[in-house]
Structures
1.
Amino acid sequence: MNNYSNSKKFGQKTVLTIYAHADDEVLPAAGTLTIMSKAGWNVRCLILTDGSLSSSSIKGTRHQEAEAAGKIIGATYEFYALEECKFSTQAVIKVVEEAIMRWQPDLIITHAPQPEKYGHRDHEVCAIAVSNVATRKNIALWYSAPPVFVRGFEPNFFVDITSVIEEKIAAIGCYDSEQAKTFMQLDAILVLSRFWARELGQKDGYFEAFEIARQCVNASFFFNLSTSNECAETQKLIM
Ligand SMILES: [Zn+2]
């Protein structure tokens, strides 16, 4: 594990993303994470595997690519080397519980659990394990959109990422080794971002979609929503 030691500032909110492979985080969430880091959130991306089983002919660069993406979106990374296509739910639960102890996240984002025939096996195991821990520890949990085959994903939270679409494209572009994947290409990124805008009835703009799986709020949540300024828009993200 490569562990970053820069500490959380007092009162700062932390979002912890947990994904099976480096690149899984940027495709569905780079825009939202960029906005959160600009708003002062501590953005931590945990990657479970080293990506060595990727179909890409370029090997061994995924972690450097992730760190380059992190500089753009304002995130720091933590890497594990669980065995791809073989790691167990129990192994992920252990990693996630340790990460929660370290970072005390206010929000966790992970893969959306999907019916088995659609999702990548590693995404599915990760989603189940992370959901188990977040539920037991009562931490807000969002599922992000699958790269393809969105069946089983029920988005109910949409983030306007129009202002940071260039950062999203640049962050995805850091993954040179994965550019042959059709869903990593520019037209696919823009079409999916537009698709979520159309889902909202908007012709223009780019969005990312999430499914809120778990949320718990205190009274200040409603006070924050009742004030209509930029700050309140940010507060909507705070569970
Ligand atoms: Zn993946």
Note: The chain has eight helices and seven strands.
2.
Amino acid sequence: MPIIVNGLETAVPADTRVSLLDFVREQLGLHGSKKGCAQGACGACTMLVDGERILSCLALAVQYEGREVTTIEGLAGDGALHPLQQAFIDHDGFQCGYCTPGQICSAVGMAAEVARGVPSHVTEDVTAAEIELNHDELRERMSGNLCRCGAHNGIVDAIVEVYTGRAG
Ligand code: FES
Ligand code: FES
């Protein structure tokens, strides 16, 4: 069964030891997703699988046969930037840009988790039908994505603008 990456079907690698990150970067030539730590600590490799964020450095490509993988290259549609990509530009949400694809993919998956009512470590009422993406929730939920340049304020402002409607 093929794996679907950004809408295109492709065969999974014959070598079952290949990580999803290496498969996408080295075999498909999609270099947006970054390898920072390769041990699940930085979030630079974050991709979406069926809409949920995962750390692709810790995943084997063969695990995702038949699944839909979206990388930063697949977020933009028809030549237009994804709203969050534009917001990162507007709010100076990056400096070197190394963490940025992971930050954006993570935020897209994070917002979907909030919309589904998935609680986090700081959610006060885990039975609530709706969770507000407030200051603490946002920072907790994005804490797995590190930025060595310290662009976190702009990153947060961009996410706030797109997913809460509040001014970033
Ligand atoms: S490269 Fe995957 S978490 Fe750092
Ligand atoms: S923009 Fe450089 S690591 Fe985040």
Note: The helical segments are 20-27, 72-75, 83-90, 100-115, 135-141, 152-164.
